[in-house]
Structure prediction request, 179 residues.
Amino acid sequence: MKIKLFFLAALLGLFATRASAQKFGYVDTDYILGQMTEYKAAQRELNELSQKWENDLKIMKDEVDKMYKDYKAEEILLSPAQRKEREDAIVSKEDAMKKFEQEKFGVEGELFQKRKELIKPVQDKVFAAIQKVAKANGLDFIFDKSANMNILFSNPRYDRSDDVLDELGVTPEETKEDK
Prediction:
């Protein structure tokens, strides 16, 4: 009987240690990145580049629109060969515009590549800091409050965003409470 109780107590003790709560915390990467000057500079550069290419694209679109309006206004006066020539010119200009748009803004376009070049190192740096903070605080999980996790409530005492900023050596311009 005592042996059975001993095994039962040992088994319960084993389950009790296994059932200990997991430690977790969360960060707000939007807040963290928003405090980093290198991220802000990268975003500014990407925005300027994007704006320049959007302006170039608008100029191309305006040229195509003007060519089409001119064609429509003169269509009745043109011979079939002239009409075909003008239509081909319009289609060619539209194709060039679409190609430019794809090269700059497409899935593997220059903007995507530039974003990867400028933003990825910053994100990697933040991720490494998050890992250090998690290990230093003995956390099993870190959630990202800003990444569609749908955290409906969060106790600020579990927020490790400022710890990550400290690890990165970044002094916040404003505290989260000021926001």
Q: What stands out?
A: Confidence is low (pLDDT under 50) at residues 2-9, 15-19. Residues 21-178 form one domain. The chain has one domain: 21-178.
